[in-house]
Amino acid sequence: MSSVLRPAVSLIVLMTLITGVAYPLVVTGVAQVAFPEQANGSLVYDDHEKVRGSELIAQSFTGEEWFHPRPSAGAYATVASGASNLSPSNPALATRVGEDAAREKVENQGAVPLNLLTTSGSGLDPHLSPAAADYQVARIAAARNLPREAVQKMVAENTRTSLIGPPVVNVLDLNLGLDRLPSGKVAN
Fold it and tell me: What kind of membrane protein is this, topologically (predicted)?
């Protein structure tokens, strides 16, 4: 019996040390050396070196003075990330989209962009299309008593394009930029 048990236990211990200890330590070490910013969560800091969020995970912003991100089925919680799984024929989806459209509606600007009404697959997408960010410029400029052109310029400066995929704007970067604008005081 020990001739069968001893090699089995030895193999379990050896594989546990290799796959559960050595391999994760090597991967973590390589990531910390080669990609330290990404390995540590792609954190975004404000001017006072305080962590304000991550470039990779959306967070909720409410109020007329902020750019609003895409809706999140999991309330922007990383543990509950995911889509709502509501089918297009589900009345609850139509109700939610209708309520979001009414809340995001800006007078004389046409239909609300789909980015502001639909959730992403993870519910944590930190990016908007430039059209969805542009749609919010008039509301934010009015709430902050800023020239519309200053907010529009900030959106243009924060628009990123990659080799593949459409251009995107990071909502957290936009909102941090709003606080750095010279007259970025919220209207009373």
Answer: Single-pass membrane protein
- Paired with 176 in beta bridges are none
Helix axes 148-157, 130-144, angle to 10 degrees: 150
Classified as helix, coil or strand, 118 is coil
- Highest mean pLDDT: which range of 55-59, 118-122, 144-148: 144-148
Contact predicate 129/166, CB 8 Å = yes
Helix ranges restricted to H, 35-170: 36-39, 91-104, 130-144, 148-157
* Predicted TM-score of the model (pTM): 0.73
Which tokens hold the place of 99? 């309520």
Q: DSSP string spanning 13-70?
A: HHHHHIIIIIHHHHHHHHHHHH-HHHHTT-EEE-TTS-EEEETTB-----STTS----
- 2 Cβ neighbours under 8 A, 6+ residues apart: none
> Among all chains, which residue has been given the structure tokens 């930190």?
126
State yes or no: pLDDT of 6 exceeds 70.
yes
Strand partners, 44: 53
